[in-house]
Amino acid sequence: MSITLDQVTKQYQGNPVVNDVSLAVAEGEFFVLLGPSGSGKSTLLRAIAGLTAADHGRITLFGRDVTQVSAREREVGFVFQNYALFRHMTVGENIEFALRVRRVKPAERARRRKELLDLIGLPGMDDRLPTQLSGGQQQRVAVARALAHKPKVLLLDEPFGALDAKIREELRRTIRSVQRELGITTILVTHDQEEAFALGDRLGVMNLGRLLETGRPTELYTRPATRFVATFLGAANLLLRREARSGSDLAPARAEGETDSPLRDRRDQEVVAMLRPEEAELAPDRDALLTAFLGYGHVEELQFTGALERLRIRMGTEGAARSSDSRSNEGETSAMPPVWIDVTRTQPEQRAFPLALGQRVAVGTRRIHVLPTPLSSFTACAESRDSAAILMGNPWLVDLTIRMQTRLSAQVEPLVADDGADPVVAPAGVAVVTAGPDCPARVRRLLARGVTPVLCLPEDAAPPSRVIVHFAGQVARRSTLAVTASLLRHVPAEAVFLGILPSDSSERTRTAGLRQLLDVRSEAQAGHGLDVRTELRLGERIEELLRELEAQPGQMLILGLPEPGSLPESFEALLTQSPGWPVLLA
Amino acid sequence: MNGFREPSVLPGFGLTLGFATFFLSAIVLLPLAALVLKTASMSWADFVDVVSSPRALASYRLSFGASLVAALINTVFGFIVAWTLVRYDFPGRKILDAMIDMPFALPTAVSGIALTAVFAQNGWIGQYLEPYGIKVAYTWLGVTVALTLIGLPFVVRSVQPSLLEVQRDLEDAAETLGATPLYIFRRIIFPTVLPALASGFTLAFARGIGEYGSVIFIAGNLPMKTEITPLLIVIKLEEFDYNGAAALGFVLLAMSFVMLLSINLVQAWARRGVVTARR
């Protein structure tokens, strides 16, 4: 590996801008870091170059730990968005700068300068001043300058940002060919997914300081693991899909992704599915569809954009597949509110079935990808409409659902379960209840009906800046990690996994405990692409958790229950404290 | 280079040029011409006699020498002050920034008296310098101190905008290319700021030559020793020797003009790399 990042963290005024990022880039690889502005991608790049010091973590370049090494000694080439050429020097002097600093002989310098100018396609421009060049030419010079001292790593910070579309394309090609020719390990930072697809051997998508996913462009486009990546790498319809009790064999044949859960057989499973606009099929009615039927809708928007036609279909409630239906092996899929589906169609598709505004169409899905997230939607459960409404108005919860692009609904649930049949269907997705004295009863009632995860939310809960993760017993390990990974991708907070051993445990148990922590870390890394820090505590479980949570405000707890479906009495203390903290039970 | 004239915000090139010429003539050229004419009414021998008298020569030395030293001091320390103001954020930065302009606003006589009080043998600073045999007030050192005070804002205000312009990216770029901080300063920051620094120096220097009010209080005005040329001119005027005053004024004017012109030329040469703002 030529570039290795290990839990790199950078904070500005207490806010993590880069949050526990671990990454390995292979030698000669062109890696693209993609993310919206403010996602921490440029800060991460600057940390690799040594221009910004990391607060935590380790950076290794070709096996050499450079975390404490200054930028000047890291031997990297860096290209800035605004070129950063020295304007009082000629193009030649700019390119020679790094060589002059290293006291390379003039003859060698001239040779290298010529070589580089040829490489970037600006031969004979030595004596021009940067101000006499166009933006694209200046950026070429900046690339040549960054390569002069033969760095092992080339870092490009939005190099095309200041250029117009045509020049951008040209420069993109130059950079790609230069990179291939030199075989130099390269990281490019951009917010433009098209650019990322065109250039990257591999992509990494960042948001809120976290590196969410890495993978080859096609992989990430067709099989994203997170909602953010699904929607950031191109248009995507996110759908909530209810799958019937008996499990994965009922999922549609084309659905991909693993969604099993130990509780699958106890209630309807809700999952998040992604439908790319180009994977939707439109037909006059469901029998004319060649693919799995999703529902009927009306054409609400129609846009001709040249090669493609863009449509927005407003889905109706009628005709959605029901479990009683003969063809409903696919289970029930319903779109999240607002119930629109974006569709793009090619010219041949348009000719085969011309559409007008307002027309009724049947929507089919060629390919649906199920996101492996246990947090599908949120349902506020309370004893009355009013308290459910209060719960639903919690700013953090609202913010979270917006970030997750998911549904937040309310459901009235009596506090004490009637004996016998429940009057209402068990809520799908995450059930949200108010923390407080009645909380354990509420939680027990939901758990008994197979509802997980459950989020206990104090009325005045603020967005957490630190998330404590703990599971009591190996049964909960998997679901806890899945819930943690899913939540942390939408919360700008640092996460600590807490392992707790009894204080009288032997040396051997302690070693085993430490090893287990490492396992947890690598499992989170491998299974969810999530990096968590780990800490080991000695003491009584609940006491230690309480101590940690009471130590500072603005924390929340993700807790894996020892047995699915039941809440031990000793855990009640964690849910009834005041002022409390959000607890997500997995 | 442009094939056609671009419309500008203010109308009428002819009108603005005419106004500029008139304004310069009335305010600057006419009085100077009068000075030259007055000088021309003297005979050559008288002129030479006045301007090359030992007392006059000594005053030139002091005026130009002290101005030069003061301007150099200001160039160094003004740069540091500007750097501090631009690069660091600290409590009281705004106040410090505002204080830089104080010498502009203060009546020069007031600053002269204040400096004298501070640097006199029994003054706040003077009393501590006295045991070391350093006398500031009533020596050429005092003249230099006064001129430094007067000239500082010129340097700071000239350098500040150009320091703001040195992008952090440039320093970052140089650092990733392997340059040491000193090298970055020498090769990147200094060349970028040099033109502004030169013009700050020029302004401070020019102001120093013409300064009168603040100097006369601290200089002690001993003929041949601490007498500046402007003071000598005033003395001539008080003796109703208008011709003599005009002759000295002419010399001051001619020397200043030559020096300012040469500094401007050097500056233009240094600026050759930087393309001027587009009109």
Protein traits:
heterodimer; A: 586 residues; alpha/beta; Rossmann fold; 9-stranded mixed β-sheet; 6-stranded mixed β-sheet; B: 279 residues; mainly alpha
Please state the average pLDDT score of chain B: 85
Largest chain-chain contact?
A-B, 32 and 20 residues
Q: Structural class of the secondary structure composition of chain A?
A: alpha/beta
Tell me the fraction of residues in β-strands of chain B, as a range.
Answer: under 5%
CATH topology title of chain B: MetI-like fold
Summarize the structure.
The complex is a heterodimer of chains A (586) and B (279). Chain A is α/β, with parallel strands linked by helices. Helices cover 28% and strands 29% of the residues of chain A.
Write structural notes for this entry.
The complex is a heterodimer of chains A (586) and B (279). Chain A has 586 residues and is of the alpha/beta class. Chain A folds into 3 domains: 3-228, 3-Layer(aba) Sandwich (Rossmann fold); 233-371, RNA polymerase II/Efflux pump adaptor protein, barrel-sandwich hybrid domain (OB fold (Dihydrolipoamide Acetyltransferase, E2P), Beta Barrel), CATH 2.40.50; 378-585, Rossmann fold (3-Layer(aba) Sandwich). Chain A has 16 helices and 28 strands. Chain A is flat, with a radius of gyration of 27 Å. Chain B has 279 residues and is mainly alpha-helical. Chain A binds chain B through residues 46, 49-51, 70-78, 80, 82, 84, 86-89, 97-98, 101-102, 129, 131-132, 142, 145-146, 148-149, and chain B through 167, 169-170, 172-180, 183, 187-188, 191-192, 273-275.
